[in-house]
Amino acid sequence: MAKHWTSLVLVVVISALFSTTPQAQNQPMPPKAPLLDQPPVLNRVFPPALTTGKTSSLELRGTGVENPLEMLASRKGFGFKIIPQEILPPAAKPGSRPATQPMNQPSRLVGRVEATSPITAGDEMVELRVLTAGGLSNSRKILLTSLSVVEEKEPNNDPESAHKLNLNQIAAGVISSTTDVDYYQFEGSKGQRLLAWLGTATIDSRLPGAVEIIGPDNRVLAQARDRVDSDTVLDLRLPTDGTYKARIFGFGHVESGPDAFYLLRLGESPVIDSVHPLVQSPSGGDCLVFGHGLPGGTPVPGRKDGLEQAKLILRPVSEESTPATAVDNPNGLLPLKPFRFAGGPAIWLPVSDKITMEPDDKSDNNSPDKATPILVPAVVSARLEKPGDRDFFRFDAKKGEPLSIELLGDRVGTRLDFVLSLKSDDDKNTQEFDDGPEALHPQWFFNRTDDPTLRFTPPRDGTYRLSVSARDVNLGGSPQQVYALRVGPPRPDFRLVTIDPTTQGGIPRLKPGTALSFLVLAERLGGFDAPIEVRIDRLPSGTRALPCQIPAGQKGAWLTLIGEQGMTEAAWPLNVTGSAKPAAGANTIERQARHAAPAYPSTQQVNNPQPVRMEHDLLVATSPNPPLLTLTPDQTTIKLTQGDRATVKFTVKKPQGMTGQGQVTLMETQNQPDPPVRVSNGNNGQVTIQADKDSLEFQLEGRNNARAQVLHLVPRFTITAQEDDPDNKGRRRQVVRMENGPPIEVTLLPKRPLQPTLTSQTIRAKGGEKGTVTIRLNRQGFYGPVRLVCAEFGLDTTVQPDLDEAPLELSIPQNARPGGKPLVIQATCEALPGHTVNQELRLQFNLVSPMARPR
Ligand SMILES: [Ca+2]
Ligand SMILES: [Ca+2]
Ligand SMILES: [Ca+2]
Ligand SMILES: [Ca+2]
């Protein structure tokens, strides 16, 4: 069996979500003079495939990648040799280098690296990135394969100039303009099975791939295009002996350029689509595998796309032989474990030692009376195996004991819009549940899925019937449409994701006196609502992380890393960990964050989610050198009240002889939905500093309804600078430089922290007696203690943190007469530890004579 199976089972993709332990990657590197002193943007590593155990040349294309100091891989075993610019052929040199290139139109520069790849057990995806003096680039994925890799040879735009390709060879190509098409030709024989795989989404390409197979008679025999975020597969039998052609192009001819690249394989290599049962026992076993080119495969009845099924034995892959890319329970639903068919690649599948299978095709569960019984807690492995399929399950539940029902389908690559409905046998109403929860970040982590989840508390003891179907089941029901279901008590838990929403994945170098910020997002599962403490384990030497907490019920917080003294020239994986107690008295749980970054660099579009993917690690590069540009704020701590404004002034210091216009942004305020602090001057949080000025001002405004909080704002300075060229005496050159500054701490306080009401407001007492009213404090986003003082009625009491209601004992003055009495209370609220806000509360109570008849 060939080793180059392609797995479309997207379990591999979700196993990449929320997992991994970064490996130490702390290597020293030689210093070198930068041309572009900002994080490089890597648009393409070409070819995006390497043959295992061989040395090949890789071309790097992007911005600021022409002088790499180092190449970093997410996998051990690579050897990289940087090819100096001087020995590159003239065409590849940055000859027309952008001495006057505007900043927002970065040039496409070229770097070259010689890569020696490790020998692997099967095909593997690896992330590569470039480290330059300006920082770390975004990562690009490449395929490590046992097959040989060839690059396309242009011109190949017509059938006559088609590039000759052997079967089971991999061609790497680029759709370099919207009119570019790439022809390949191969020899085929009558009755031969041909599987064409066009790899795009899995290697971070922007190309909407499309492929056509053209017969010896020049007729198009078959065509296919990719689906959203997946590769293209074509499966056909060749009708005759002869020379065939494959035509590759961008679907719709809209996307092209350096990041519209692809891999093409023509041959018979198996492609796995899905595995039934989806949920495996830890020891594996017999499975029904769906895909193309499977050993012993037979056509799936009724399918016209060549989909076939095969009975194969799935065996667990011993943990030590697989890379550390998973932790227990990565999707918060079921743990994933690696399995393998004889000769196949590792596939990550959910496991459980107690699985309920839906009955086979013959005994249907398509109506409530034929519901499959399940015993809660239950893990079900099932399929929507034919058009219109609907699966019913029934279980007994106890009144008041909450249950969580979660479905795993869309997230493992089953393309159906699942829907759940639930009905009690003792009730007429049916509740329906569609898509999963709200996205964590509308632009940078749009993680909503079509997998429904539901939490419910049974209103009574009894039998409940649950149905699983899909909105598109009439078209999409098919034997490979697998899903898993968990019904059981809610398990409060969380997953963390770090993102840097200010760049296209590149991260500037952390230097003494500067800071970096990451947004840490929390996906809260099973009703988990508690605060999460976030920390960085094993900090890079010479750095310090500021305290970070995601408050109760909130989606995220910024994590700030500060460069101090004793830093080294190195790239470090950051271990960001969150810890929380799901409930009072529960054990602390800890989860390691995964880093997400743009799948490919692109221009930011507000309101459009950026395609992002999980990266193997979050890396930062540090440097002992002081920043070339410094930003010094006139104040490092600011107290701001909701709705109020404050001005912070930065003094900018540039090296002698450097001129140019620059921009400063406060990272945490840019491109964020409802930031707690907004920059009211400038453009989208960005303020321009003219070439002849050495200072600039930010007008900060606290959002009216923002929570009380302490936040840190990290300034980022980008300048298109003119400076003396050290290589050409007496001449000037243009350099784009980016440098961060030190953070400013903003304490944001509520203006009127309390909305008070009296929930009991009548006192029956005479003058000189005491009486009690009850106050309700609607807290505007803070939890600290509140002191309430009113001299007139002898009140001086403190409402404890978190309490919203308290009795107030009032001393009625001797001469008080019955009737409405104004109650004016001076409230002192500890809105944040060490920060109080005063507020006058004006209320009214009724004083009633004890003699009066109650109404
Ligand atoms: Ca081409
Ligand atoms: Ca071409
Ligand atoms: Ca079914
Ligand atoms: Ca059914």
The biggest beta sheet reads: 7 strands, mixed
Small-molecule binders: calcium ion
* Separation of the first and last Cα atoms: 90 Å
Please tell me the CATH architecture of the domain at 355-491 by its name: Sandwich
- Low-confidence runs (pLDDT<50, min 5 residues)? 7-34, 90-108, 320-330
User: Based on DSSP secondary structure assignment, what is the total number of beta strands?
Assistant: 68
Number of helical elements: 2
What would you report as the Rg, rounded to the nearest angstrom?
Answer: 32 Å
Fold-level CATH name of the domain at 355-491? Jelly Rolls
Q: By helix and strand content, what is the structural category? A: mainly beta
Helicity level: under 10%
Q: Determine the strand fraction and express it as a percent band.
A: over 45%
| CATH top-level class of the domain at 355-491 | Mainly Beta
Mean pLDDT: 86
Name the overall outline: flat
Short description:
The chain has about 850 residues and is mostly beta strands.
Which terms summarize this structure?
2 helices, flat, mainly beta, 7-stranded mixed sheet, 68 strands, Jelly Rolls, binds calcium ion
